[in-house]
């Protein structure tokens, strides 16, 4: 019995190693995902932009500003001139936090009182905001120690404020993100399995001899996936708002309009994978090969700013990146149609590219 099992084991190993597609599936996806995860999946927060509004140019205030600007966490520092600029900087995600030093900071500290500064964070990035707040407190502790070492009285207090998610409730961050990820899974799997299932069941030849043109077949495969994914997305939104208590401050029509464009880009990827696959197993593996890196590069697990610059460039071709920004903006703040459009038109271009490639490959495989 042992010899028979060993013989079968050797036979299966050789079958996998001799088949070109099996070798690709066993070697390329793990290496690719390992390479991406090593750079992109990190719980550190770095390369972030900090905005500083220093209304007090006394020495203590300038020292505090210098300490924050020199921190390794912040890759860039943006100096503001007026309090009115804070809302725009946070709204457009041009900085993850704003250090606001009031006019009487130095005077209060030098007379022995407790000087207070504000630290305003973008609460839409719940995990990153918590980590940056911890970094800020460590910088402030070092500043206090330096001030006390000089034998001076007085203290400093940093007042953190989280915009759009005051209590940093992680569900407010997770549910809008899951709207994006779960609709991606549904749209991608339904289309990836469509043509491959026809081939595996032997009904693909019936489609070829029917009056349907290749483009009509693709449209017929894409529309059901689009409708199913939109219904799935609507269900997630309904549960998130009414059961989990996540606020929906923006426009539902804007959310679903952008979702439709996003799903067209995902469906193009799914049809491409399905046209390339001969079996449903290959289709699932192909979908998985796209899904995991796309999720990592979307900014869900860790901020895109944490990633190396060359990897950030690749993320611009990821439709999940744009829809993630739209979903969070519509849920947690009432973003305007102009802001949604700025994130939607790149998805429309990606959809044109993926759908065109899927159509080209499908026609080529039919020849």
- N-to-C SSE string, H for helix and E for strand: HHEHEHEHEHEHHHHHHHH
> What low-confidence regions span 5 or more consecutive residues with pLDDT below 50?
none
Q: State the total count of DSSP E strands.
A: 5
In this structure, how is the largest beta sheet organized?
Answer: 5 strands, mixed
Structural class: alpha/beta
| Principal-axis shape | elongated
Through-space gap between termini: 48 Å
Question: How would you write the strand order of the largest sheet?
Answer: 2-1-3-4-5
Oligomeric state: single chain
Description:
The protein has 14 helices and 5 strands. The chain has helices spanning 2-18, 20-40, 59-69, 85-91, 105-110, 126-149, 170-201, 204-209, 214-242, 252-276, 280-296, 309-315, 319-332, 337-366; strands at 48-54, 74-79, 97-101, 114-122, 155-163. It has a 5-stranded mixed beta sheet with strand order 2-1-3-4-5. Helix 6 links the parallel strand 4 and strand 5 (155-163). The mean pLDDT is 80.
Outline the secondary-structure elements:
Elements: H1 2-18, H2 20-40, E1 48-54, H3 59-69, E2 74-79, H4 85-91, E3 97-101, H5 105-110, E4 114-122, H6 126-149, E5 155-163, H7 170-201, H8 204-209, H9 214-242, H10 252-276, H11 280-296, H12 309-315, H13 319-332, H14 337-366
Parallel strand pairs: 1-2, 1-3, 4-5
Antiparallel strand pairs: 3-4
């Amino acid at each position: 019995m042992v010899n028979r099992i060993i013989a079968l084991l050797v036979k299966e190993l050789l079958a996998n190693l001799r088949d070109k597609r099996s070798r690709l599936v066993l070697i390329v996806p793990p290496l690719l995902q390992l390479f991406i995860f090593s750079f992109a999946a990190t719980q550190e927060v770095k390369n972030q932009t900090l905005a500083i509004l220093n209304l007090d140019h006394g020495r203590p205030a300038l020292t505090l500003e210098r300490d924050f600007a020199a921190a390794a966490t912040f890759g860039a520092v943006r100096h503001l001139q007026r309090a009115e600029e804070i809302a725009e900087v946070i709204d457009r995600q041009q900085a993850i936090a704003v250090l606001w030093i009031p006019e009487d900071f130095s005077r209060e500290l030098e007379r022995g009182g407790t000087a207070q500064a504000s630290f305003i964070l973008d609460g839409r990035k719940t995990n990153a905001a918590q980590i940056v707040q911890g970094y800020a407190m460590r910088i402030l502790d070092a500043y206090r120690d330096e001030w006390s070492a000089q034998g001076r009285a007085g203290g400093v207090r940093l007042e953190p404020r989280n915009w759009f998610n005051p209590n940093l409730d992680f569900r407010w961050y997770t549910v809008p993100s899951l709207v994006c990820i779960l609709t991606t899974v549904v749209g991608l799997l339904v289309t990836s399995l469509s043509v491959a299932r026809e081939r595996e069941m032997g009904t693909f030849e019936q489609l070829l001899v029917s009056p349907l043109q290749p483009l009509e077949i693709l449209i017929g495969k894409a529309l059901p996936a689009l409708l199913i994914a939109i219904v799935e997305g609507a269900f997630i939104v309904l549960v998130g708002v009414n059961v989990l208590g996540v606020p929906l401050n923006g426009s539902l029509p804007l959310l679903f309009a952008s979702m439709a464009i996003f799903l067209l880009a995902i469906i193009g990827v799914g049809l491409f994978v399905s046209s390339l696959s001969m079996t449903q197993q290959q289709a699932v593996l192909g979908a998985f090969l796209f899904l995991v890196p796309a999720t990592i590069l979307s900014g869900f697990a860790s901020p895109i700013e944490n990633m190396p610059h060359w990897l950030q460039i690749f993320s611009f071709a990821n439709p999940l990146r744009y829809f993630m920004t739209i979903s969070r903006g519509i849920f947690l703040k009432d973003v305007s149609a102009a802001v949604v459009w700025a994130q939607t038109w790149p998805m429309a271009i990606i959809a044109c590219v993926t759908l065109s490639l899927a159509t080209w490959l499908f026609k080529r495989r039919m020849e």
